[in-house]
Amino acid sequence: MRNTHDTKLIFDLSKPGRRAARLPACDVPERDLAELLPAAALADAPPALPEVPDPQVIRHLVNLSTLTMSVDTNFYPLGSCTMKYNPKRNERAAAMPGFADVHPYQSDATIQGMLEVLYNMQESLQEISGLPACSLQPAAGAHGELTALLVAAAYFRDIDEPRTKVLCPDNAHGTNPASAAMAGFDAITLKTTADGYVDLDDLDAKLDESVAVLMITNPSTLGLFEPNMREIADRVHAKGGLIYLDGANMNAILGITRPGDFGADMQHYNPHKTFSGPHGGGGPGAGPICVTDKLAPYLPAPIVRKSGEDYSLDFDMPKSIGRVRAFFGNVGVLLRAYAYIRTHGPDGLKRVSENAVLNANYLLSRVKHILPVPQGNRCMHEFVASGKDLKRDKDISAMDIAKRLLDFGVHAPTVYFPLTVPEAIMVEPTETESKETLDAFAEILFRITEEDAQTLHDAPHTTAVSRPDEVRAARQPVLVHAE
Amino acid sequence: MVKPEELLYAKTHEWISVAEEGGDKVATLGISAFAVEALTDLVYIDLPAVGRQVEAEQPFCEVESVKAVSDIYSPVAGEVIAVNETLPDNLEILGEDPYEQGWIAKIKITDEAGLGELLDHAAYEKLCSEEAH
Amino acid sequence: MPYLYNTPEDQQAMLEAIGASSIDELFDPIPESLKLDRPLDLPPALSEMELDQHLRELAAKNANTGNSVCFLGGGCYDHFVPAVVDTIGSRSEFYTSYTPYQAEASQGNLQVVFEYQSMITRLTGMDVSNASLYDGASSAAEAVLMAISCTRRHGKVIVPASLHPEYRLTISTYLENLDAEVVELETPAGVIDVEQLTAAIDDTTAAVVLQQPNFFGCIEDAQSVANAAKEAGALLITAFDPISLGILARPGDYGTNIAVAEGHTLGTPMSYGGPYLGIMACDKNLVRRMPGRIAGETVDRHGNRCFVLTMQTREQHIRREKATSNICSNQGLFALRATAYLSQLGPQGLRETANLCLQKSRYAAEQLCEQERFSLAFDQPTFKEFVIRDADNDVEGLLRSAEQQGFLAGVPLGQWYPEMADCFLVAVTEKRTKAEIDQLVDALAQEKNNRQGRQEHQAETVQH
User: Fold this and answer.
1) Cross-chain Cβ contact C93/A68 below 8 Å
2) Residues of chain B whose pLDDT is less than 70?
3) B57: how many CB neighbours lie within 10 A of its CB?
4) Which of C69, C138, C272, C434 is the best substitution to test chain A (most A C-beta atoms within 10 A)?
5) Domain presence at residue A474
6) CA distance C401 to C413
7) Closest-CA distance of chain A to residue C232, Å
8) Alpha helices, H only, C320-433
9) Domain-located, residue B131
10) Regarding beta strands A165-169 and A211-217, do their DSSP bridges make them parallel or antiparallel, or are they unpaired?
11) A138 and A242 share a domain?
């Protein structure tokens, strides 16, 4: 049923003279370009964009959309990504002209409603994290990490304690050490135990007065709550260091425990995950951060303040690190997150985490006999199984399973991450899935792990394409369509 | 014809041969067949610039597969005096002939202290068989 | 809860399968002392209707392009968004999917990214584009880091005052803990003085950052700036306006090495500043130092053309602390919208859009300058923005008065340029009609009379 004509590259559907856009006639006296601009500044011809009418744009892109799995069409248990339902009421809210068609340089007086939403977001995020100050500026989780580390660097510079190191556990997401390096720190890898927890001996060996920050993901990328969290935080604080909480896995702990209460000095949120996104095919996200009082002066400016019933932007922050992007922040994403938080209220958010953890544990209980989890029988919101035995006994790899699942209309879990688990298969069902969906997923897994290995090696069989040649793509990169 | 048995090897899987050239000691470096196989499907090599000073046991070159990056270390300190310009567009040579046409760089040795740490072929084979398990 | 399936019976059955007596027990790994012993202090839950009413009430408090005429610019503009773009942007197969790591399940997304990259290179005259970054300012900062890495020059980066102040601040913030120094170049004439630039560049200079058209709307002598950079072995980073490329020379035409832009103008609403689209394109030989995702063409096991994410060894998930950047996302949804927008406009549509911006903004500038009170701050050719100097030095009062008459008239510049406290920036897009421009001129002209009226009234009050 695939429409092979309309899914050609748009450039191959173009024909000179075809066009969609008709602009209004110029209603002011029109002058020659040569009269208005220096000749050297002018292009010889407009860019070679495709020439297609409206219906072609639509048929081309709508057909392409159907070649894409999504949360709205498929179960999407992609570990560490929290692919939960993206509420439609949030989309409607963000599209309201009073929010969508507002310019970032309007005066505060003309955007009191917007500032009220953003102020409430700051307050809500502070309450959920147990940290008293918030910046909504960062554009994504990784951007929040960088921002917080720049805040930490500014703090240590201000108190005249030059610290050069950031510690990251070996199972941390790659953004952690990358953010540390971008912020000018040396990223030092911290060992984890076989159980996936921070190795306290290694921590002691590496912890000294040169350590600025320990970045920790809790619950961890293995879906486990760090049992020594308080102890780790105490040891780092005793040496004058700070704890950064990678908030990637907040979906497990909303209203149950708070980073500020378990020792974090700073954290970011991934509102596109925890507070229902959407993910947009890879973005946009947002990466608001919350910090302790002593770090608050260094946050990027501006912050929304409230005085009586009036809201305003506060740029008067002399110790601020400056800016990490233009304008206020990823407001459209924050608005959706606000709608999500208001829809749930305090009890609702706790139910979200309870059901996320229940769903993950239920699925784990159903599949662990074929996909054992090295780190035990229980998890938080996700679990990392190992396909090591299947690989050894049946020559079926984690990648094979991922690809074969696509044939059954299920998006693949995250595979080969974290690197500390061999043949890792990382499953995060989220709370917005039913027991029936989880049961069906388990049944599919049982079925495909009984199939002959070749069927899996050749999978997927039903998708538009199968097993792209990634070596060729990397060896002889073709990154644009030649004119 | 280079014989693998006559080369020296680093624990980080580089091979090296040392020769006199115009009064200087020059090391020719590559990566072992074992390393090429372990890296699977190489897609890119980032050769060092000629003239670059390299330190002993420090990375000076990178090879990439689709989803991994591996550093290549120099066992000796010195100056890069030649690189194998044909490699970037013909990475298959590394697999087909790693010890001759697959050479990566020549380094004029300024400090040969690192040479003493190298393994002979038998010791290297033993190391590989241990790592393979 | 509107988004949950689990009934109490489901929960019971699931707990039995797990072998747990309660949901609370699943949270046993969290030490009791760390648990929150009270409900979160948040407002109570709202039904969908209540939420809708609450948000409509808040939205109604915001002036917007539906009830005000927008002449604001400074990196964000009120351009027209065709319906086709909204239709495509609301396909939930696109907006509810994740990063296309499983290529077979994401050919739609991947092909769109490939088409986006191809369009960006055609638009800019550059060799390659990535799949997008966060926004224009952070893209400029990433370009600076990339230039330092490519040139191995850790000395300095030159940013003229005619570069967007928030871009400059972002670059400075990114570089704060690294070795390189940000050198600011004054631009009293509204554009870069090439002689002064040449004097400032030396062999430790990694990059010169040019904005074209610049923050004041003026056209820079891009070719001379490019030559000065090239001569010293520094890279040229150009922050461009995508719409302007309907008529202006492309960054690649004058020797830009890394081109960046704020791409929200290609079909993404203003949304009070974000989320937006960070465009980045560069020379072929720099691509391995480029941050961000890149899609590439290849074949599948049946030999069919298909698309994958490629050159991933640059990225954080493989190279960790040695990665080109920590970025782990792209603005996929807005790259999609830009692809739809540029397809819908085509070469002629883009050219006409750019021309309307140019013609109308020049008309607006002339009409404003007919008023004795107003003059252009710079004697330079401009594209769609210009800086007006207010002889009465009451920019705040002027803009507030215009606001009350339904005009978002301009961006005051004193906040960034103290010496320009009497100036404001006016942007005119293709959406503005002659009637709106004439009304704006009237509103701003009348302000003086209003103000005089107010002052006389105050004087009278005092007398009484």
Assistant:
1) yes
2) 1, 133
3) 16
4) C272
5) no
6) 17
7) 22
8) 332-369, 395-404
9) no
10) parallel
11) yes
What's the CA gap between B88 and B91, in Å, rounded? 6
CB C331 within 8 A of CB A139: no
> Nearest C-alpha of chain C: how many angstroms from A328?
6
Peptide bond into A460 cis (omega under 30): yes
Instruction: Provide the 10 A C-beta neighbour count for residue A119.
Output: 18
Contacts of C309 in chain B (CB under 8 A): none
Q: How far is C234 from chain B (nearest CA, A)?
A: 19
Is A171 in the same domain as A276? yes
Determine what percent of chain A is predicted with pLDDT higher than 90: 95
- Tell me whether residue B132 is in a domain: no
Query: Yes or no: is domain C347-463 CATH 3.60.15.10?
Result: no
Nearest to C62 among A110, A187, A378 (CB): A110
The dihedral sign for the CA sequence C299, C300, C302, C306: negative
Inform me whether the pLDDT recorded for A449 exceeds 80.
yes
User: Could you check whether the bond before residue C2 is cis, i.e. omega within 30 degrees of 0?
Assistant: no
Alpha carbons A198 and C38: distance in angstroms, whole number: 29
* Domain coverage including residue A26: 10-61
Cβ–Cβ gap B44/A471 under 8 Å: no
Give the fold, CATH level 3, of C83-342: Aspartate Aminotransferase; domain 2 (3.40.640)
> Which positions ≥6 away from C177 have C-beta within 8 Å?
A150, A153, A183, A184, A185
In a domain, B133, yes or no: no
Chain C positions touching A412 (Cβ under 8 A) are: 102, 105
Among residues A244, A227, A234, A225, which one has the least CA distance to residue A168?
A: A244
Q: Is the same domain home to A289 and A202?
A: yes
Chain B positions in Cβ-Cβ contact with residue A471 (cut-off 8 Å): 41, 43, 65-66
pLDDT tens-place string over residues A375-402: 888 999 999 999 999 999 999 999 999 9
Of A301, A316, A344, which residue constitutes the final position of a domain? A344
C-alpha A78, offset from chain centre? 12
Give the confidence band of A1 by pLDDT, cuts at 50, 70, 90: confident
Nearest residue in B to C311, CA atom: B66
Task: Kindly give, in sequence order, each residue whose CB lies less than 8 Å from that of residue C8, ignoring residues fewer than 6 positions away.
Answer: none
Same domain, residue pair A50 and A103: no
CATH of the domain at A211: 3.40.640.10
Cα C327 to Cα C100: distance, rounded to the nearest angstrom: 15
Segments making up each domain of chain C, as ranges: 83-342, 347-463
Name the pairing type of β-strands B58-65 and B68-74. antiparallel
Q: Are A227 and A197 in contact (CB under 8 A)?
A: yes
Domain count, chain B: 1
pLDDT at C460 > cutoff 80:
no
At B54, the amino acid letter reads V
Look at residue B89 and tell me if it is in a domain.
Answer: yes
A121 and A269 belong to one structural domain: yes
- Mean pLDDT (chain A) is 96
pTM for the complete prediction?
Answer: 0.96
Which one, of C432, C72, C278, lies nearest residue A105 by Cα? C72
Which runs of consecutive H residues, i.e. helices, occur in chain B? 33-39, 92-96, 121-131
**Residues A267, A137 share a domain:** yes
Q: Quick check: C18 pLDDT over 90?
A: yes
Total domain count for chain A? 2
Residue A254 sits in the same domain as residue A178:
yes
Angle at A153 between CA C418 and CA A331, to 5 degrees: 60
For residue C44, what is the DSSP state?
P
Whether A101 and A50 map to the same domain: the answer is: no
CATH of the domain at B63: 2.40.50.100
- Domain containing residue B66: 4-126
pLDDT, one tens digit per residue, over C89-116 is 999 999 999 999 899 999 999 999 999 9
